[in-house]
Amino acid sequence: MIDFQSILNAIAKTAANADDRGLIAGYIPELATIDTYKFGIHLIDIEQRNFSAGDSDERFSIQSISKVLSLSMVLGLIGESLWERVNVEPSGDPFNHLSLLEMENGVPRNPLINPGAIVVADILVSLLDNPKEDFLAFVRKLANDRTINFDKKVAASEKVTGFRNYAAANLLKSYGNLVNDVDTVLDFYFHQCSLSMNCNQLANTFFMFINQGKCRKNNIFLTTGQVKRINALMLTCGFYDEAGEFAFEVGLPGKSGVGGGIVALLPNRFCVATWSPGLNDKGNSKLGMLALEKLTTETELSIF
Length: 304
Ligand code: GLU
Hints:
By secondary structure, this protein is of the alpha+beta class.
């Protein structure tokens, strides 16, 4: 059996000694003050054995990782009709680019870039009685953890500086691909991005993606077909314009966020979350990517 704990310990040790740790995402003021020396990693395997190292219990802003959770909730609620409003192709562009949206008549390339996630948020705002509360309840159920919450300061901070997201939402509205008003949808979107979780909670929440749509308590959240689709989207679109590089280096589906978190997984085997707030120039956690490359190289476990 693979000794995951020793491998995680070695990864955390290498991360602690790294000189080049990347740069914090300063465009959300509330994130700009986080210590770049933080590093955490947590892995859960299909038998629900848990392994962790470093700052794996410290909460951080999961940001774009939340897009996978909102997508899961929407797919569970409306199924395939989602694809009438969002495409499933990688964009090869940064997460907040708008040019493609205009060229493609307001249909976002995929649900994991900002315009796509804003359309998903719009659908949830239409469907849910109390969108923010109901979404939070969904995540808590998935994680089997009632302590998970939004970070209202981060949400407020992004509201003040989220000019590009306002531009994206307005563009979507002009193409008729946003039903609700821009402020309501973005208020929901900024809250979902502000979810504060640690590596342990993230790995456990994403367990359903290695377990055919069933959470750790064996409750069914998604069909196997839906899990297949979401995992495919994570592989092709989960890392901004660096999805090719992540597949090349790490070889797993996953999703990153500008808070420095990454979740990656091997279906039927394990799910792993890392956190290190310094980002590379594509917006992915610098040490997180190195850690996951080391994990899949040492264990020889990847989808390839
Ligand atoms: N809330 C962030 C934004 O919309 C999410 C970006 C990310 O994590 O990629 O700019």
